[in-house]
Amino acid sequence: MIQEIYQRAMKFAGEKHSAQKVPGTEANYLLHISNVAMEVIMAYHYNGNFDLTLAIQVAILHDTLEDTETTYQELVQEFGDKVAQGVQALTKNADLSSKKERMEDSLLRVSQLGREVGLVKLADRITNLQKPPGHWSSDKINGYLAEAQLINEVLSDKNEYLNNRLAVKIKEYQNYL
To answer: What Pfam families does the record point to (predicted)?
Structure first.
């Protein structure tokens, strides 16, 4: 059942992210993870034209390769090839020199996989478009906004509900400039 899959992935992510906080807050990182998962569940409620089991696992695990010591092989062993491939596509390649290159590379890899991975990227950015930390410059806020617009454009065919949600969040985020 989906509840057991959700709980298993959440336990794994909770252990892996145990010391991590949501940037700019004192909140445990599971808050971000659960918000991304909630966006995916709401998208499925709106239009269930995707594999919720795959999408929810990728949503919960989406930052494990990038932010923890989790290995790709560990994800394969615990959750299977499709989940591991999805998480890897969402992971920015640290070997690329610029932030822009890392984002473009990740979006290319995400685009080549099924809609489930793309809609997780949309859900992640929706969740991240909260009030920026006070120390962010207007240039950094502008850059983050531009990334959100690029994500929404590149992944425009992944999920109409999430694309619309992201468009609204982008518009609201402009108030922070």
So the answer is: HD_4
